[in-house]
């Protein structure tokens, strides 16, 4: 137990350091040596957890998505209406990602140049996992005859697809300066979509 | 007149050759020499029209968008209902782009690695131009009290945003093999959006 907990802590510490160094140096300039120094461990210890800088960057994004999914599950379990929860979940999936990367927005394009193909494959998995959480709420709305019929997971994927262009990956760095604009566009999109889904 | 027409023809011939060579070689391997040879003109003649390979690739995309806008205007002028036209326009904006690049889908990622920042800036302009065409139909629907109130151009931008993640730029090459899946997702998205917009 003690070892597992220490291992998790070191892994998280490396990912925390990644976040800080992406802001400070950007992806290209950041080295495994910098990361080890920032955490206060040896370079070899970093390699116990990750095989490459690419894997570190992708794991850093994985962690953002894991945390997002926890938040989505918490919203899904709220006692508010299905419509309110779906709207809040759509806004959360856009804004949580925004807030997680906004401080290193200038280096996102640079990082993408290196990890785009691997990230695109991962995104398919992220979306499938998010869709499962949304589908539970959609099915609840269908059972109460509040929402139109149809495969809940497929409807969920349509909701995700309709907000995916607002995710940081699709934005130009300069767009990432304007949280208010992203929030407004997401709210408007959610409103139209949820009205369109109502029975 | 004769000169202007000949100039347009050469420019178009270069862009047609670009389309063929992107399929044959991909962006990186394609040279200005290859293009000149493919058109049957001198390298210097290519430079009379374009300053760089990047500009050629971006002009090639500009031309796709110009043709798409013509198609959108034609649909907007049809005698069908506002809802049918909006749905058809949303499907056209996704599928026309798909069909325009599908034959060189394997080299899109490679081309993006070189022109992504410039393309992101251009996309803002493309979307603004498309939104103007959509907004005319939306305003028509609002005047007939068929659609909800709101700034037509802003509603148009929300419709575009909700289908932008289905555009080739956002797809991984392997997704570009499945036209049927993209068409289905676009139809489902359009259906929910247009129902959500109805008054």
Explain the overall architecture:
Two copies of one chain form a homodimer. With 199 residues, chain A is mainly α. Chain A folds into two domains: 1-51, Homeodomain-like (Arc Repressor Mutant, subunit A); 52-197, Tetracycline Repressor, domain 2. Helix content of chain A is 75%, strand content 0%. The first copy, chain A, has eight helices and no strands. Chain A has helices spanning 2-24, 32-39, 43-49, 53-76, 82-101, 108-143, 152-164, 179-197. In chain A, helix 4 (53-76) runs antiparallel to helix 5 (82-101), helix 5 (82-101) packs antiparallel against helix 8 and helix 6 runs antiparallel to helix 7 (152-164). The model of chain A has no long low-confidence stretch (mean pLDDT 91). At the A-B interface, helix 6, helix 7 and helix 8 of A face helix 6, helix 7 and helix 8 of B.
- How many structural domains are formed by the residues of chain A? 2
Which CATH architecture of the largest domain in chain A? Orthogonal Bundle
The CATH fourth-level homologous superfamily of the largest domain in chain A: Tetracycline Repressor, domain 2
Give the tally of β-strands of chain A: 0
CATH-defined topology of the largest domain in chain A = Tetracycline Repressor, domain 2
User: Radius of gyration of chain A over alpha carbons?
Assistant: 19 Å
**Strand composition percent of chain A:** under 5%
Biggest interface and residues each: A-B, 30 and 30 residues
């Amino acid at each position: 137990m003690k070892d597992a907990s220490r291992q998790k802590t070191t892994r998280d510490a490396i990912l925390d350091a990644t976040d800080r160094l992406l802001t400070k140096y950007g992806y290209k300039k950041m080295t495994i040596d910098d990361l080890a120094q920032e955490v206060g461990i040896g370079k070899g210890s970093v390699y116990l957890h990750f095989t490459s800088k690419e894997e570190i960057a992708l794991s850093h994004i994985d962690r953002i998505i894991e945390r997002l999914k926890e938040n989505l599950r918490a919203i899904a379990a709220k006692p508010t209406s299905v419509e309110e929860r779906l709207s809040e979940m759509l806004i959360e999936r856009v804004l949580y990602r925004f807030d997680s990367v906004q401080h290193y927005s200038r280096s996102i394009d640079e990082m993408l140049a290196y990890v785009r193909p691997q990230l695109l494959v991962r995104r398919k998995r992220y979306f499938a996992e998010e869709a499962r959480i949304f589908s539970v709420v959609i099915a609840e709305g269908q059972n109460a005859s509040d929402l139109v019929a149809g495969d809940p997971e497929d409807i969920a994927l349509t909701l995700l697809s309709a907000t995916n262009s607002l995710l940081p990956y699709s934005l130009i760095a300069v767009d990432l300066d304007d949280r208010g604009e992203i929030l407004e566009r997401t709210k408007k999109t959610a409103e139209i979509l949820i009205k369109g889904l109502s029975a």
